[in-house]
UniProtKB/TrEMBL annotation:
Belongs to the AzlC family. It is found in: Cell membrane. GO terms for cellular component: plasma membrane. It is a multi-pass membrane protein. This is 4-azaleucine resistance transporter AzlC. InterPro entries: Brnchd-chn_aa_trnsp_permease. Keywords: Cell membrane, Membrane, Transmembrane, Transmembrane helix, Transport. GO terms for biological process: L-valine transmembrane transport. The chain crosses the membrane at residues 22-41, 73-92, 135-162, 168-185, 213-230. Pfam families: AzlC. It comes from the Bacteria.
Amino acid sequence: MDQINPYRTELGREARAGLRDIAPAAIAAIPIGLLFGAVAAGKGMTTAEVTLMSTLVFAGGAQFAAIETWIHPAPILTLAFATFLINVRHVLMGASLSPKMKLSRTQELLAYFFLTDESWALAERRALDRPVTGAYWAAMAGMLFANWVVSTTLGAVLGSFLGDPARLGADFAFTALFIGLIAGFGRSRVTLVTVGTSAAVAALVHHFIGAPWHVACGAIAGIAAAYLAAPKEARA
């Protein structure tokens, strides 16, 4: 009888945990992906172009921002600046995750291409108990990536047949999911101050100035609040 390889068993266990944890986010992403594909097709993009964009960019917020201002010829500098503001938070998210990942530097750089708000939150929550392994991350982030590419492509194919998912509240699915993920971090004073400050500043900036400035402002406010709320010894 062949002996069971404990290393392969551990890899399988980690991969299954990643798939299990990301399943709710993947399901919530489907109507958003379908909506993006339909909107992009309505703007004149081909199905192949939608698939290529989702594969190379893989950033729902940035893709929606780009498609909302899509004209011919495309305002490249405007799109690039908006994308930068929306996605600059990934620098902070990557810096937060880096010491908790059991990956080489090269593997980390590759892994962070697949970084999303949901995968970051799930990895941070898992890191409360154990390091984030490559198998866990690959299964979790890879599943969400494949799900996004397929759903946006299908949305482009179906186009106007879908209608508006906002009628059913599907556009709020990701937001509701992320609120649930944040709630899982606990209710410490630092967490509550950080989340509350970030949310309040983002809401105010969105109301008085508009997107995409609220993303960067909310992130900066949250960082400042976390620093000020942390114990003095933790700041050293």
